[in-house]
Amino acid sequence: MKRSERLVAMTNFFLEHPRELFSLPYFVNRYEAAKSSISEDIDIIDGMFQKMGIGELTTVSGAAGGVQYIPDLSKENANHCMEELIELLKDPARILPGGYVYMSDILGHPKHIREIGKVFAAAFHGLDIDYVVTVATKGIPLAYAVAQVLGVPVVIIRRDPKVTEGSTVSINYVSGSSRKIQTMVLAKRSIEEGSNVLIVDDFMKAGGTIKGMMNLMQEFNATVKGIGVLAEAEDEDEDRKVDDYISLLKFVEVDEVKQTIQVSKGNYFI
């Protein structure tokens, strides 16, 4: 390969394998190049990643060492991503009966969900995470986007047990929106005891569902290292059950009469 071709191939390789450790001999054999040339290539790619604000290549020394791509996203890039989403969410056609806002198209769009995943991964950059945890159903694509960047598995909490998942652990919780007692369940083999988890959800009002997920994690002796929500509702004297969390967007006001939606950036940007 010419160097220009090898740089393209290696850049794509690192982007496709975030947080995975590869030895220099691996690249020497893969691209049939000298070790010194591969080292120079890695320095060039690392410099470009950092210049673009999308992460860095780190080197781990020792016999079992190597190089790995650590994804990140600069605040400038994150701001640009959220500004695009805010413009989309301001559309009054999104207003649903009851003051809800239609967001399923955004959560189902590969481009948007991929960018949101990068922002969340950057927000929790540096944390030791073993699993990304969410509750079915709208949080699932969001959780997978975050997990792909962090390079960890996704764990999905469900409302009803599935016979294909074996024995489960279940708890009751108070839904923040309906104030009803609901149930969430998780297969016993989903999470190893003592793991570190990141909880991700698409929307939070009073935080009842997220609090329920936190309580369920206690049943597995898991440590909640972080909580991320795509959007939160403006706190209007709500008895919010969760304090320590990161939000990317905030719905300040949804007026069904005036047909207006006011959206701002979440607390991650404060």
Which consecutive residue ranges, at least 5 long each, have pLDDT under 50?
Answer: none
Q: Using the coordinates shown, work out and report the CATH topology of the largest domain.
A: Rossmann fold
Percent range for β-strand residues: 25-35%
- The CATH architecture of the largest domain is 3-Layer(aba) Sandwich
Distance between the termini: 47 Å
> Which CATH class of the largest domain?
Alpha Beta
- What percent of residues adopt helix (DSSP H or I)? 25-40%
Calculate Rg over CA atoms.
Answer: 21 Å
Order of helices and strands: HHHEEHEEHHEHEEEEHEEE
Strand order, biggest sheet? 6-5-9-10-11-12
Number of strands: 12
Mean pLDDT: 94
Tell the overall outline.
globular
Overall SS class: alpha/beta
Number of domain units: 2
- Tell me about the biggest sheet? 6 strands, mixed
Number of separate helices = 8
Protein name: Pur operon repressor
GO molecular function: DNA binding
Subunit structure: Homodimer.
Domain Bacterial purine repressor N-terminal: 2-71
